[in-house]
């Protein structure tokens, strides 16, 4: 049964227990939810891949030992730990309240796939007790999406991955200069090709990779240029076009059911379309059929 929230995951006092895991095939990066124990300890924590950990719940103290060096640290929601590839902790101990954290790993193959080779690897110097609202927000939102069967669609989850990778590379990485700049926009021909593709395949699963491929760009570079061009993310843009298409279909043919319109316009379900219309337009699909105007 799919989760409705990370809060559905039962906490554990076993620091080695995996509460949930989604492979990189789901959105582009492997995501693991792990416990923050109230009281616990273990020896030998080796991180083979560059990763970040963001606390979702839990407050308390923790102690990490590396050789003779002992670090006395705190835990709080949205606090970030950044671990470089190969970092080893000889011993870890916790004392506080039960919680959970989200770990995202940045293996070279996944980084190269997301950026189409523009970035060969992501190296993040190890840092403790980091607060970066953008990183914590994107990480927790990505975890919610992937653990709950991607309710907002693959395009949205992939966009979160690209945004997170870009922020980390530019603001926390060793090689920030290698990250692409955002001083350009999509050309007129690229915009036309995207518009034609989205309108022709409005009911299909449109991934970030598919849109980027259409205009010959890596997903990471595409997402940056798209935002500079349209002032919004690919997911939000496609969602707006889907809502517009649904409004037109609902008014054009009363014989077609609302559920059929939702499916034809690429929404996950009748309820998904209804909720988005209520939030965006201030009206439900059934009211549109009765000729009620929308609040744009």
Low-confidence stretches: 176-183
Shape estimate:
globular
Largest sheet: 6 strands, antiparallel
Number of helices: 11
Determine the mean pLDDT: 87
CATH architecture of the largest domain: Sandwich
How would you spell out the order of helices and strands?
EHEEEEEEEEHEHHHHHHHHH
CATH class of the largest domain: Mainly Beta
CATH superfamily of the largest domain: Jelly Rolls
* CATH fold-level assignment of the largest domain: Jelly Rolls
Cα(first) to Cα(last) distance is 37 Å
Residues in helix, %: 40-55%
Provide the domain count.
3
- Percent strand equals 15-25%
Rounded radius of gyration (Å): 22 Å
Compact summary:
The protein is an alpha+beta fold and 296 residues long.
Structural overview:
- This protein has about 300 residues and is α+β, with helices and mostly antiparallel strands.
- The protein has three domains: about 15-130, Jelly Rolls; about 180-230, no CATH class; about 235-290, Orthogonal Bundle (Arc Repressor Mutant, subunit A), CATH 1.10.10.60.
- Helices cover about 40% and strands about 20% of the residues.
- The chain is built from eleven helices and ten strands.
- It has helices spanning about 25, 110-115, 135-145, 155-170, 190-200, 210-215, 220-230, 235-250, 260-265, 270-280, 285-290; strands at about 20, 30-35, 40-45, 50-55, 60-65, 70-75, 80-85, 90-95, 100-105, 125-130.
- It has a six-stranded antiparallel β-sheet. The protein has a four-stranded antiparallel β-sheet with strand order 3-8-5-6, with no helix packed on it.
- α3 (about 135-145) runs antiparallel to α4, α4 packs across α7 (about 220-230) and α6 crosses α7 (about 220-230).
- The longest helix has 19 residues, at about 235-250.
- The relative contact order is 0.11.
- The model is unreliable at about 175-185 (pLDDT under 50).
């Amino acid at each position: 049964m799919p989760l409705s929230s990370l809060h559905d995951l039962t906490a554990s006092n076993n620091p080695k227990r995996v509460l949930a895991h989604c492979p990189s095939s789901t959105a582009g990066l492997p995501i693991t939810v792990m416990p923050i124990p109230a009281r616990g300890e273990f020896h030998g924590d080796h991180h083979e891949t560059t990763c970040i950990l963001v606390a979702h719940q839990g407050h308390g103290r923790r102690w990490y030992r590396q050789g003779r060096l002992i670090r006395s640290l705190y835990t709080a929601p949205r606090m970030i730990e950044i671990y470089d590839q190969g970092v080893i902790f000889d011993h870890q101990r916790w004392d506080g309240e039960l919680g959970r954290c989200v770990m995202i790993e940045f293996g070279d193959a996944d980084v190269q796939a997301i950026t189409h080779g523009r970035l060969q690897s992501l190296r993040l110097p190890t840092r403790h007790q980091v607060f970066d609202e953008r990183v914590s927000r994107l990480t927790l939102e990505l975890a919610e999406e992937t653990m709950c069967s991607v309710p907002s669609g693959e395009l949205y989850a992939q966009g979160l991955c690209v945004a997170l990778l870009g922020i980390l590379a530019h603001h926390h990485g060793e090689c920030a200069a290698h990250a692409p700049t955002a001083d350009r926009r999509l050309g007129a021909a690229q915009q036309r090709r995207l518009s034609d593709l989205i309108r022709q395949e409005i009911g299909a699963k449109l991934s970030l990779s598919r849109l980027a491929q259409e205009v010959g760009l890596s997903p990471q570079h595409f997402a940056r240029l798209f935002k500079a061009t349209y002032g919004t993310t690919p997911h939000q843009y496609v969602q707006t076009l889907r809502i517009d298409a649904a409004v037109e279909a609902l008014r054009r043919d009363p014989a077609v059911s609302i559920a059929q319109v939702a499916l034809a316009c690429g929404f996950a379900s009748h309820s998904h379309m209804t909720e988005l219309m209520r939030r965006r337009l201030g009206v439900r699909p059934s009211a549109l059929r009765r000729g009620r105007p929308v609040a744009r």
